[in-house]
Design goal:
- By secondary structure, the chain is mainly α.
- It has three helices and two strands; from the N terminus they run E-E-H-H-H.
- Strands 1-2 form a two-stranded antiparallel sheet.
- Helix 1 (17-32) packs antiparallel against helix 2 (43-51).
- The chain is elongated.
- The N and C termini lie far apart (61 Å).
């Protein structure tokens, strides 16, 4: 059974590939109409996430974004740690 993991939550998807693709495409199409009430632009990334289970090109894009996101996040952590270390070193010398 296909599952989507977002943060700490898991959501089960239908076993049928055509139904999953239909759900993904439907979310994207409705997300494009996100300016309307009830619908939202948040549906587009969710639709891409659902499609990434079955479509290799979308899966590749998702992996590239994930690698980019985690790399950027790690760079921020390292920069923050370096700034804190420099601040501590400066406090010790003063």
């Amino acid at each position: 059974m296909a599952k989507i993991k977002i943060f700490n939550g898991h959501w089960h998807l239908p076993k049928s590939k055509p139904i999953r693709i239909g759900i993904g495409v439907g979310l994207i199409v409705l997300g494009i109409l996100g300016f309307l009430p009830v619908l939202g632009f948040w549906m587009i990334p969710l639709g891409l996430l659902v499609l990434s289970i079955d479509l290799p090109i979308v899966r590749r894009w998702r992996r590239q974004v994930t690698v980019w996101w985690h790399g950027k996040r790690e760079a921020r952590r390292q920069a923050k740690a370096a700034a804190e270390a420099a601040a501590r070193a400066e406090q010790k010398t003063s």
